[in-house]
Design goal:
elongated; 22% strand; alpha+beta; seven-stranded antiparallel sheet; seven-stranded mixed sheet
Amino acid sequence: MGSTILEEVSAAIGAVGGKSAFAVEERASADDLELRVRGVGRVRLPVNDSVAEKLIAAARPAPFGVRDETRYDERVRSTWEIAADRITVGGGFERLLAGKLDTMRRRLGLPRDGVSRLILDKLLVYGPGQFFAPHQDSERAEGMLATLVAVLPSRHTGGAIVVRHGGQRRVLAADGGEPDDVDLVAFYADCRHEVEPVKSGYRVALTYHLVDDGTDKAWAAVGRTSAVDRLAESVRAHLATPARRPYRKEDAEPPDRLVYLLDHEYTQRGLAFARLKGEDRPRVSALLQVAERLDCEAYLALAEIHETWNCEEDEWGGYHRYERHRRLEARARNRNPEEYDLLDLCVSEVTLGHWVGRDGAADPGVPAYAGDDEICSTRPSVEMKPFRSEHEGYMGNYGNTVDRWYHRAALVLWPRSRAFVVRAKASPAWAAGEIMRLLATGNHAEAEKNARSLLPFWRHARAAVKTPSFPPKVFRIAAALGDADLARALLIPLGAPSITAASVRPLLVVAERFGLAWSRELFASWADERGARSSCLVALPVLCRALAASAWPDARPLGVALLDEETAAYRDRCIADRSVLATRHGADARAALVRDAMTLIEALAALENQQGRERFLGALTGPEAALPAAMLVEVLEGCRRHRVPREVRSLGLAPLHEHATQSLRASLERPVRAADDWSLAPPLDCTCALCARLLTFLRDRNARDRAWPLAKEGRQHIHGIIERFDLPVAHDTVRKGSPFTLMLEKQAILFSGEAAERKREASLLAALERWRPSYIDAAGKISPPPRRSRKKKGKQDEVGDAPDDARRIGARPIGPIGA
């Protein structure tokens, strides 16, 4: 439905204004033209071959521009030029030219009361066979709108000017001219044009820049017409009709903006309301009137468009296949993407920038990306020359596409009533600052209205904000608004990463404002999101220190509840990952469990949660979720590092130290594997019949190899089990007979690996013995928590406690919103 309305908007825009030309031609008498060239003297008209050759002798080869480069290449431009500072145009020709200019401006669609002038650029001489390939003029003068070419009278054939725009083509100055007339050709600077090869004689021309020095006062309004009325109704319907976007679960909403892509191209210097070209002028004028009727803001902007097209229809068969291959090779050599046949538009992306307002304002702070449900045009981009093009050939099941990039301009308008939402989508940080400003000035109703308008897109917009000052602002806003449901909706998208030392104080203010149950629900929503569990754990020590120091009565119960949930989740992870922890495939799981165990131990100590600590350490050493001894050593070493012994003892890790020590001793006391013992006892988690037979083979101390006839699915399953559990068993398939035979062979690394593991265990045990005083004092007791020093406010005490002012979070008065 949205696309149908946009098609109606495009049709209504196309119906506005009369048809204006993109290129025009006039004739002027050469009687009053006096032309002098330094080094040649007076040029008599019509120009004969002798004078033309003198001009060539005084000229230089003409270059052309490619972006910021100046190049010389006769395959692109073959002509001669003389710079403007060597040319003098006299007589009454300038007055005659000025008179013709008014007519040409009117035909081009420029306002009659605009202030325009011509700037002489150069004199060009084309000899037989010379030409200028299709190109687009660069904007070499401030306010340049068009190029004017004055073809002087001379006897020549060929050299016509061909101008293209919007799928149209005009051939101008094609008859070689009259002996007494000057051919005047004017066309917009963004139009692609060429000079065809001269067949005989010499073609001599003066070129001018048509510069518009007008201001917005030169703007001509369309007036109240039925076309404008139709346009206003179509724009009103567009801005009011919900447009559901694919892959979005949210309820459909009306588009925020209308983005109309203009027909002509503009540069940053040339983009202005007073310098619009051709039919862009009356259409934008009509849209501005519509904006006033509908109370909308309007800006011009430059648009970069990226389109991906399917191209070059695949033709099968002998001749067609050969012909297609030949054409593709030729195109690759020529590097000319214009030759590809475009079939279907796959993807289109539009990015807006360089904003220009009627009042001179720039950068309104709105989203740079324009959605498909916002964009309309009267001229498809495919009719324009891309500034970049890349071809992706056939790549099996994909490819044979062309990516094209275009420079265009656009008029963008949006209702003033949605200005906050439009800007908030571009900058959630700006939106938070604006709501805080409203709250600080006492405008609570407007602040709440704006906050609620964020909810439909808040989750997606929040992800783009990386500044650390953003979460504390949102926490303060949620507390000040005082609505529990609104606060929850604003805070859930922030996620656990928003808990930092800077944000924990305003977070606790919100928690105290809405209570324990609300707070637990908020934290649960953060932990439930995919990938958020680790983020919650990282933030727990900071949060628990703040909760321990808070004067809020429910602060400690909240911390205890959070830690109980996280330790239970950790225990479940240990059980789930237990079967792969000893394999090389479990490296990531091992690292995560060690890191998170250290974090939970620190959080439990910060909250001084003795019972929770005992339960957690019991889980780490219990029968169901016990970590391997080597991982426990990593946890102990991580907790010991950067702490003095008394502080390490306060963590209460003596049970963990003793369990790891006893586990290593018990492992080292096991008898060394006999030379003929090939048994394995891996913790397989599959109970199928095939794995039962595999386990029987693995446990057999005398069996080193086995030939196992097995169907394909069974072989794949056994292959997967051996790889998953990193078993020292070679496995290959003998592809003879039916079914094929799976060959299993236990590897000698079974013995060398066990010897290396015993050596490692002995090293870990020795390390634990050296570290024993760090975990257990001389009397075999756990040290009490270190006394917190209050000597220096804001500084850490002798055992690394948090700053004093962090401990008093929740006890200090909260300043006004926005402070």
